[in-house]
Amino acid sequence: RRIYQNIIKSISAEERLLAVLIDPEKFSVENAVRFFKKVNQSVATHIFVGGSTVEAQATENVVSEIKKQTSLPVILFPGDTSQITNKADGILFLSLISGRNPEYLIGKHVASISKIKSSNLEVISTGYILIEGGKETAVQRVTNTKPMARNAFQNITDTAKAGEFLGMNLIYLEAGSGALNPVSAEIITKVKQDIKIPLIVGGGIKNIQQLESAYQSGADMVVIGTAFEEDESFFDDLRK
Length: 240
Ligand code: 1GP
Hints:
This protein is an alpha/beta fold. It has nine helices and eight strands.
């Protein structure tokens, strides 16, 4: 449980965690060296790899390349069982607890077991909560679930707490990749007050102000994908 223990340790030392999300569909191996030079010089602490629609085998190739370029822990953030590869260090074992689609609550999980058992991946149980982000996102489309309304505070905090009571190790508040509106400060604050497990926040975070606001509100780890894909100079603002 090395990855999870380190997350807990960092949080108790009041360190801020930042995961760079790499979508294997969009990642170009030709740019890997330049991209990771910036990642390695930045305050990023983790690499997440995953996407809602990724061709089989693409993830494995991309993870192998990433492992050559960085010593940061590489954690699968899979949209599907086909994205599981032994080349990564860990996997967020995500259950989409904001939705009511049994496939994404438990079905895919059962189907993934033989792959996971034959790997050395550290499995990190994660309650994944999709919040309305201002437009229909891939998570919503692929999982055929409704995001939670941004003003449904009680329902959102109860969902996060239920995830904790079910024994999950992390809660992930997700506005969806490329969301117009990131998860609001008010939602982050309320969820953080209610749970004892670490809180991850991602989706639509594009600048330092939004990043800072997520941390200030109580996010222990922030995930950024699109903003780095679109403008690598964002890393320059995040130098160590
Ligand atoms: C999506 O939370 C992640 O699953 C990151 O979203 O691509 O909008 O940064 P962005």
